[in-house]
Design brief:
The protein has 14 helices and 6 strands. By secondary structure, the chain is an alpha/beta fold. It folds into 3 domains: about 120 residues, Tandem AAA-ATPase domain (Rossmann fold); about 60 residues, no CATH class; about 90 residues, Rossmann fold. The strands form 2 sheets. The chain has a 4-stranded parallel sheet with strand order 2-3-1-4. α7 runs antiparallel to α9, α11 packs across α12 and α12 packs parallel to α13. The longest helix has 19 residues.
């Protein structure tokens, strides 16, 4: 019988090399020793994440990885980076690596030749203007931009491109509610010719009245995605609940992020829906009570509490969100203190 240490070791899965043999001698001699080892490891591994700290020359490392792989495969390479750092790639390519010029910045595949190293920004790939699968080697610079645990459009699009994990399946997997399977399935062709608003209404009715099959719904969503009808900003095919304990009639888009967007301010990563706040406030408090939100965000809970005749309090760590929340609460306080026509008549 294995001891616990051996049991844990048996669970370890090491990534297998998928790259090309690379000797130190074929690496640009201008690189520092640690950069040469990084290049060798990345080229031989094929799929590698380099978490080198600031100042360790990740820029030239990526450029050299592209160059060496293309020397073995031919074709073209792509570096995807934040727009603000492209000049750093050009400068290091010329001044450190001795290239005649840095990688060319492109937004469409038509701007690229059959060979060469190119650079683009994350938004270009995220918005579907450039497909990285048309390149022989791809490097993601500053890949922390993909963080967000699947919540960002950038993350979801890169997951789809590099893993085949579709936005449609992500929406179904990430949703907090599902249902058991049954016999009657909604067919993709039943919704293919409809527009988004009609699809939403049709699916809501179907989900409430008919049986449920997870994989069938994913296939419908993927069919809509292929036609460009699956929104990236909200879930179109939302399973409905028969239980009072699960709320699926929440208007998910009705949040303070709408005001943030119209004012050109930073939107909250996970805004509270008005419907949720209103229901909890009305069910769990009485008019005149104090409603406190320890994680205030944009101030949705104290704001809705004020609207519902309560006293709202909020605590928020992020200073930007805190100041925006204060503005919303001040505006509501001023609105409630504005006298009405009847107030003026009574005063006279």
């Amino acid at each position: 019988m294995k001891n616990y240490d051996d049991f844990l070791k048996s669970k370890i899965r090491l990534a297998q090399p998928e790259g090309f043999p690379c000797s130190i001698e074929e690496i640009n001699p201008a690189l520092k020793p640690h950069n040469k080892l990084m290049v060798k490891w990345m080229v031989e591994g094929g799929r590698r994440a380099c978490f080198a700290s600031f100042g360790l020359h990740k820029t030239v490392t990526q450029l050299e990885v592209n160059r060496i792989i293309l020397s073995k495969t031919g074709g073209r390479g792509l570096i995807i980076a934040p727009l603000g750092v492209r000049q750093e790639f050009n400068k290091d390519a010329v001044n450190i690596l001795g290239w005649k010029s840095g990688p060319k910045f492109i937004r469409r595949i038509e701007e690229a030749d059959e060979t060469g190293i190119y650079i683009t920004n994350y938004e270009t790939v995220r918005d579907g203007k450039l497909d990285p699968r048309l390149f022989n080697v791809v490097c993601l610079d500053e890949a922390s931009i993909l963080r967000g645990l699947g919540g960002s459009k950038t993350f979801r699009e890169f997951m789809r491109l590099f893993t085949g994990y579709s936005r449609a399946r992500w929406q179904m997997d990430a949703h907090g509610f599902t249902r058991s399977s049954g016999e009657r399935l909604l067919k993709p062709e039943e919704v293919a010719k409809l527009e988004a608003d009609a699809i939403y209404k049709l699916f809501k009715t179907h989900s409430l009245n008919e049986v449920w099959d997870f994989e069938q719904v994913v296939s419908i969503a993927e069919g809509l995605e292929a036609q460009g009808k699956l929104p990236s900003g909200f879930m179109l095919l939302q399973p409905q609940s028969w239980s009072d304990e699960v709320w699926t009639d929440i208007k998910r888009m009705l949040t303070l992020n709408g005001s943030q967007w119209s004012l050109g301010k930073e939107m909250h990563v996970c805004p509270m829906q008005f419907d949720i706040a209103d229901r909890v406030i009305e069910q769990m408090s009485n008019p005149g009570d104090i409603v406190l939100d320890y994680f205030g965000g944009l101030g949705t809970v104290p704001l809705r509490a004020m609207i519902k005749g309560r006293k709202g309090l909020g605590i928020e760590l992020n200073p930007v969100y805190f100041l925006d929340a204060v503005n919303y609460l001040k505006a509501e306080e001023l609105k409630q203190n504005v006298p009405t026509l009847f107030d003026l008549q009574e005063a006279s």
